[in-house]
Amino acid sequence: MLESWEKREKDYYPRRALDFDMSTHSPKYYRTFLKAETNFVFVAEENDEVVGLAQGSILGESGLARLIWMGVHSAHQNKGVGKGDGTLQK
User: Fold this and answer.
1) Comparing 4 with 20, which gets the higher pLDDT?
2) 69 and which of 34, 36, 55, 90 could share a cystine (Cβ 3.0–4.6 Å)?
């Protein structure tokens, strides 16, 4: 996150907001978040390295979902990482 902020966002995204984002998106946060059956995180990997995440929640029984947050490592942006390949693993 810090690398992307320094390269692309520091002129308009406040450092205090970045610090909050970095504190929120921790392993502890995701373990707690995923305890709820309606929450999910999709992880994009390349060569066993995490290159992107998408976090969301399913809304009631409608089957609709809300995308809460999505990020792709700056070295992997504009390569279709966010599109996925259609395969899901639990």
Assistant:
1) 20
2) 55
Please, are residues 5 and 23 in contact by the beta-carbon 8 Å criterion? no
Q: Where are the alpha helices (DSSP H) in 1-90?
A: 2-4, 15-24, 27-33
Which helix (H) or strand (E) element contains residue 60? none
* Site of tokens 């399913």: 58
Is residue 83 pLDDT above 70, yes or no? yes
Residue with tokens 């992307």: 4
Is the Cβ–Cβ distance between 44 and 72 less than 8 Å? yes
Residues 6-23: pLDDT tens digits?
Answer: 988 889 999 999 999 888
Q: How far apart, in Å, are the Cα atoms of 47 and each of 32, 50, 54, 72?
A: 27, 8, 18, 15
CA distance 35 to 31: 7
